[in-house]
Amino acid sequence: MSTTFWIKALELILALGILVMIHEFGHYFFARVFGVWVEKFYLFFNPWLTIAKWKPGKYFKWFSHGNEMAVAGENDLNENKKSWRATEYGLGWLPLGGYCSIAGMIDESMNTEAMKEPAKSWEFRSKPAWQRLLIMLGGVLFNFLLAIVIYAGIVYSVGEEYVKFSDATSGMIYCDSAHKVGFVDGDIPLSADDKELVRPDAGSLQAMLTCHQVKVLRNHKDTIAISIPDNFIFQVNSDAEKGHPFMIYCMPLIVDQVQPRMGGEKAGLMKGDRLLAVNDVPTPDITSFSEELAKYKNKNVTLRYQRGNQELTAVDVPIDGNGMLGITKELDPSKIFKSTVIHYNLLQSIPRGIEMGWDKMVNYVKQLKYVFTPEGAQSLGGFGAIGSIFPEKWNWLDFWNITALISVILAVMNILPIPALDGGHVLFLLYEIITGRQPSLKFMEKAQMVGMALLIALLLFANGNDIYRYFFK
Question: Which of 94, 186, 346, 350 could, after both became Cys, cross-link 45 (CB 3.0–4.6 A)?
C-alpha cells in the first residue's frame, strides 16, 4: 500500500481516538459529578483482546483476553462511588469507537441481569431524570465544545486569510453540473436566496447547493439569477467524486517552480511568469491551459507568457507524454488576488470559534434531509470516505480543521433519536420527564436491540458503499 494510504489511515485513527476519548469523557464527567459508578472507560473496542487495562491501585495488565466486567463489592462501591479509582480504564484494539460503561443502564453491553436487581444509590437508574439526561447529553456536548476549542485555537494561532468573491476579479470556474443549471465560468457569486455570499467557505458552498436561487455577477456588469434544482447537491457530489469540484477560483497560471530537464526549463520559464497562450490559443486560467496543453502530448508547442510588464514567446517547447510542461503552479489565490486577513486575540477567538462551530453544525443538519433520498443513500460513506478527506501529506492545520468538522458531525449523529445512540436515550428520558412514567425494562431492552441492529446495518451499508466506489467507480 502507498505512503499516502498509511498517512491518511494514521490521521483517521488519531482523529477518531481524540474524538472518541472526548465523547466518552463527556458521559464520564457528568456520571462522576452525580455520583454514578462508571464500570469501564475504554478507548476503542476490545472484543476478545484488550491491549491494556488499568484498575487504579489494584492492577495493570498488557494484552489480556476476554471481556470480563469489572468486579467490585457493594461496600467497596459505596465507599468509593465518587472516586475515579472505581473505574477500569483500558485500550482496545479495534479503532471503530469506544465506550463508557455506566452502572445501572441498558447500553451496548446488554447487561440486563444486573437491571433485575434493586437499584443501588450509585447506579444510573436511581438518579433523577434531569441528571440522567445530562449524563446522556455529555458526549454530544463535549464533542461540540471540542470543535469550538479547535476552531478558536486555529483562528487564534494563524488567523484567517481568504479571498472574497468580489476580489476574485476573474470569477470562479464551475463543474459540468453547475454549467447545466446556468452557471458560466467567470461568474462571481453574489447571494443565495438573497443571503450575501462573501467567500468560498463551507457555509457559502452549502448555501449555494441547497438554496432555491443563486445570483451571480456576469461580465462584471450583469446580475443573473440561477434557479437551483432540488437534487443539485447530488449532481455536484457526483462531479466531485470524479475530481471536478463545484467551483474553484478562476486563476491565471503563475509559475511557482520549474522542474529540471523538462519543457518549462527549456522554454526559459521562471518563478512568477504568467502563461498566456498555447500555439496562439488564449489560456487565461489554469484549467484552460491544462486542457489545451493536453492536446499536444509528445509534441512541441509555442508558448506566450508574461514576465513583469514584458510579453515573451518561447518556440519548440517539448511537451511530455502526459501533456505536462514540467512546472508547478501557484495555487494559493491569496498570492494572486487581493486577500482579506483577520487576526484574533484570545478573547476574540472564542466567539469566532463558537460561530464557526455553530455554522458547521447548522450546515450539516440541513444536509441530513438528503440522506433519506435514493441519491443520499448512495452517497453515504464509511471510514474510507472519512479517511479520504484528510490531506495526503501531514498538515496539522488541515488535520485539526477536519477533526473539528468530524467532531461536529459526530455530535449531530449521536443526538439523532435512534435507540442505541445517545439521542435514543435522550428521547426516552424526555418522555419520562413529560409523562412522569419510565419506559419498562423489557421495552428498553428491545429498543436497544433494534437500535443496535439499525446501526450495524447502517455501518455495513456505508462501508459497503466505500468498497463499491473503490472497485467499480
Answer: 94
